[in-house]
Design goal:
Structural class of chain A: alpha/beta
Oligomer: heterodimer
Number of helices of chain B: 13
Largest interface: A-B, 58 and 57 residues
Strand content of chain A: 25-35%
Shape of chain A: globular
Distance between the termini of chain A: 17 Å
Distance between the termini of chain B: 24 Å
Number of helices of chain A: 6
Helix content of chain B: 40-55%
Order of helices and strands of chain B: EHEHEHHEHEEHEHHHEHEHHH
């Protein structure tokens, strides 16, 4: 997929806290050039951005302290492709329930997310998902294995966004609005590459 | 670190036939997953709900609920045990970030109680008095993930074999002296580098010397890293201490007595968080180190008689 002539898209991973390394490794495997983003100036150098899993209250607070919050809002509103997982989904949600004290979001995804929707860590789980975008590709398509770690849930999807994946009981756990993808789970923890591939496709389409 | 090698499609060929819609809790992926989400963060000792809220406001990724910080355990002596469930409940109630709590080494019933209380992570900790001088807890039997201390690679690998989802280099808790934390993380990272440089036929002897299973030793040699995140602990008292641990290869930092035994806990806590994130930026570390008030007075580890060194507990 990448050769000598194609160095691959430049993907920034917001590297303030969380599972930055797992995302970076998967993106590199898929042919992207990966760079950590810790400063506002670094946002200008990327074709797409990943908001990793982590503690959303901490990442939110650190984006404020590092001066990244407003620049992040601007690039997301300006159409930069973004993939957020778990904490990243929370950061992208237009509306947040059960946030920490004073917690803010960047917006970009017309959904209502509930933080820690499944309970404490002993309730964290892995399962196979229903992914409409992958249906109809034949019976040999492997199911999507997803890990939910103190995960959020998408409680409402607004008119601007669409469902991307759901639990077997129908509850929404991933949504898309144009170039913005938000997942409540961690494909980077289970080696599931298809969402990162979809994201890189969105980046390549520009 | 524990991410399976990505393949062009989903990982598990074995799941292709029959989708498994039954949620599985307490799997290795789920336990190590929480450890991965805490990376780049600071985990702070707290003894009251009020301290827990200060820690959360300062930007810590998790709090460690305990009755006495290590500096007080050291000063007061006596047997140190799991905290009162009421106290742990109070801290769980106070914050929305993950709550950790300590069980004594080998005390699997304290661990059962902590899991029942709903703590998010158990620290099988040398800071408390050991309950078993031979066996550590069989951590595979639990749904909740565990973090365990280690002073060298062999100890880390034995804890991972028992099911630990995170390793914490021990340092010397309750001293405010970072030298042991430095020594332990340098030891572990140097041993990993040495292992990665070995020939395949040398790994059998390495496994014997490390007193760890060959399969795990080989995994670490091939990856050049532990299969679980490694944090550092024990004596971290300043923003520069935290940043140094990160530059030495830690995935995150535990701070204990250093915060609430200092002059301005809220300010110092926020400064340690910021320095942990911007660990490679001396300008930021300089800025957050200003005007923090009095640091923890501390004890030089060299002045501690050997029987009082907590890092020597665990094997």
């Amino acid at each position: 997929m990448s050769g000598y002539l194609d160095p691959g898209p430049r993907i920034g991973v917001l590297a303030l806290q969380g599972d930055v390394r797992e995302h970076s490794r998967m993106l590199e495997h898929l042919g992207a050039q990966v760079m950590p983003v810790r400063r506002p100036a670094e946002l200008a150098e990327v074709d797409g951005l990943v908001l990793p899993g982590g503690e959303s209250t901490v990442i939110d607070r650190l984006t404020g302290l590092t001066g990244l919050r407003e620049p992040l809002r601007e690039v997301i509103a300006g159409g930069l492709p973004v993939l957020g997982t778990c904490a990243g989904l929370i950061l992208l949600a237009e509306r947040l329930r059960d946030g920490g004290p004073g917690q803010e979001t960047f917006g970009g995804l017309d959904v209502t997310a509930r933080r820690n929707a499944f309970g404490r860590q002993t309730e964290s789980f892995e399962t196979d998902l229903v992914v409409p975008a992958l249906e109809g590709r034949g019976a040999d398509v492997p199911p999507v294995r997803a890990a939910f770690i103190r995960a959020p849930l998408i409680e409402e999807i607004g008119p601007a966004a669409e469902l991307l994946a759901a639990l077997p009981d129908g509850r929404a756990v991933a949504a898309r609005q144009g170039r913005v993808l938000g997942l409540a789970f961690h494909p980077e923890s289970t080696g599931e590459t298809r969402f990162h591939e979809l994201f890189l496709q969105v980046v390549r389409e520009g | 670190m524990s991410t399976p090698a990505p393949t062009s499609h989903s990982t598990a060929a074995s799941t292709a036939a029959a989708p498994s819609h039954t949620p599985a809790t307490g799997t290795g992926t789920v336990k190590r997953g929480l450890a991965e989400m805490l990376k780049g963060g600071v985990i702070m000792d707290v003894v009251t709900p009020e301290q827990a809220r200060i820690a959360e406001d300062a930007g810590t990724v998790a709090v460690m609920a305990l009755e006495r910080v290590p500096a007080d355990i050291r000063a007061q002596g006596g047997v140190s045990r799991m905290s009162d469930p009421d106290m742990i409940d109070g801290i769980i109630e106070a914050v929305s970030i993950p709550v950790m709590a300590k069980a004594r080494i080998g005390h699997f019933v304290e661990a059962q109680v902590l899991q029942e209380l709903g703590v998010d992570f158990i620290d099988e900790s040398e800071v408390l008095s050991p309950a078993d001088y031979v066996h550590h807890i069989d951590k595979h039997r639990f749904t909740v993930p565990f973090v365990c201390g280690a002073t060298n690679l062999g100890e880390a690998l034995r804890r991972i074999t028992e099911g630990a989802a995170m390793i914490r280099s021990k340092g010397e808790a309750g001293t405010g002296d970072v030298s042991e934390a430095t020594r332990h993380i340098r030891t572990i990272t140097a041993e990993i580098r040495a292992l990665a440089a070995k020939g395949e036929d040398e790994l059998y002897l390495a496994a014997k010397e490390l007193q760890a299973p060959y399969s795990l030793v080989r995994e670490v040699a091939e990856a050049g890293a532990l299969p679980v995140p490694m944090f550092t602990a024990g004596g971290v008292a300043t923003p520069a201490d935290a940043a140094m641990m990160m530059q030495l290869g830690a995935d995150g930092v535990f701070v204990g007595s250093g915060i609430f035994k200092s002059g301005e806990p809220a300010k110092r806590a926020a400064a340690v968080v910021r320095a942990t994130t911007s660990f490679d930026d001396p300008a930021v570390i300089a800025e957050v180190s200003r005007g923090l008030g009095e640091a923890m007075v501390g004890i030089n580890v060299a002045d501690l008689p050997a029987p009082h060194r907590l890092a020597e507990r665990g094997w």
